[in-house]
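Quick log. Single chain, no ligands specified.
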Amino acid sequence: MIDQLKIEIDELQGLNWGSLSIGASITIGIYILPQILGNFKSLYPHIDISLDIVLNRQVIDKILDNSIDIGFLGAPVDDTRIHTGVFLKDDLVLIVPAGHEWAERDEIEPLELMTQPFIISRKGSGTRHIIEERLGQAGVVLKKGMEFGHTEAVKKAVESGLGVSILSKTVIKREEQVGVIKALHLVGVDLQRNFYFAYRNDKYMTNTARTFLHFAANDYVE
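-> predicted structure:
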């Protein structure tokens, strides 16, 4: 009865009014969704939107406890209670500080990484999951450097010469432009990944949520 009432109210309101609660992993929440949300709000100014930016694992928890309508993730979800789909494709790159011995090169062999302190995001990060999975497949055992809870801190650590790292190309645009970080190709390692949208299988998706998902998949321009 309650679900039917929600459906009827949703259909009556259309997109003139409504609310949407979103959870996103750090890379997506900080570097991708703001552009999409700004464009969406310009079309639908009366929709109230909240965005919670947390680690990948925490986004999954929020989906499962129904505290958000939609989640955006940097790694796949292995949970039959959650429906997922590909949102965007993303490329990870090796990054070094401008004065690094590798800064004049364009590509690095994977095993060379074992000679450098590696700066990494903390456990629960979608980026870390992909890095450990792909480098493990290449036989790379990372020389552990510092561990940070935020992408910006990882970038600053690399920029300061504390080590090297792997991050999304999306998040290092400014640093590359001003010349404080150099992006390199890692030979023979597939560092492309998908970004995903996700929601509970048993959750009623409002007209607002459905419209936003369609909009998000078609709006973002790098």
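The two ends are 44 Å apart (CA to CA).
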